[in-house]
């Protein structure tokens, strides 16, 4: 008889030190950006005693923001919040012409397909 191992965490999101799923990607991109800021500053001739604390403070801010967002919104919550921000609060129209055009298009529909014709076509096919 064979013995199989059970993989209990197969469909769980990746989590490292409380930071879940896509927040790890945000943190990695932020660290790469901070590294680029340090390199560009170093190549530009900025003194190291200014660059290291600046990058350190920005790194601390990045890590705290990512960890707070991860704990506040969860695995998919931040994407839902960003999507909700794109939904308009209201649709404003200063004219009724749009609605009149919609009703005209519905009344003048030349497609020739209606619910009753579909039912009669399907019944004739089955007979």
Tags for this entry?
mainly alpha, two-stranded antiparallel ribbon
Low-confidence stretches: 112-127
Domain count: 1
Distance from N terminus to C terminus (CA atoms, Å) equals 57 Å
Name the helix and strand elements from N-terminus to C-terminus, one letter apiece: EEHHHHH
How would you describe this protein?
The chain crosses the membrane at residues 21-40, 46-66. InterPro entries: DUF4133. Pfam families: DUF4133 (PF13571). This is DUF4133 domain-containing protein. With 127 residues, the protein is mainly α. The protein has one domain (15-109). Helices cover 64% and strands 3% of the residues. It has a two-stranded antiparallel ribbon with strand order 1-2. Strand 1 and strand 2 form a beta hairpin. Helix 1 packs antiparallel against helix 2 (48-73). The chain is flat and about 70 Å long. 2% of the residues are buried. The model is unreliable at 112-127 (pLDDT under 50).
């Amino acid at each position: 008889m064979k013995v199989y191992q059970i993989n209990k965490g197969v469909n769980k999101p990746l989590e490292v030190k409380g930071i879940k799923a896509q927040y790890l990607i945000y943190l990695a991109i932020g660290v790469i950006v901070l590294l680029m800021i340090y390199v560009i500053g170093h190549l530009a001739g900025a003194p190291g005693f200014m660059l290291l604390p600046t990058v350190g403070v920005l790194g601390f801010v990045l890590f705290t923001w990512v960890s707070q967002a991860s704990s506040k919104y969860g695995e998919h919550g931040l994407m839902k919040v960003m999507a909700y921000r794109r939904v308009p609060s209201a649709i404003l129209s200063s004219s009724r012409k749009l609605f009149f055009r919609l009703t005209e298009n519905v009344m003048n529909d030349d497609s020739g397909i209606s619910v009753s014709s579909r039912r009669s076509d399907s019944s004739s096919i089955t007979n």
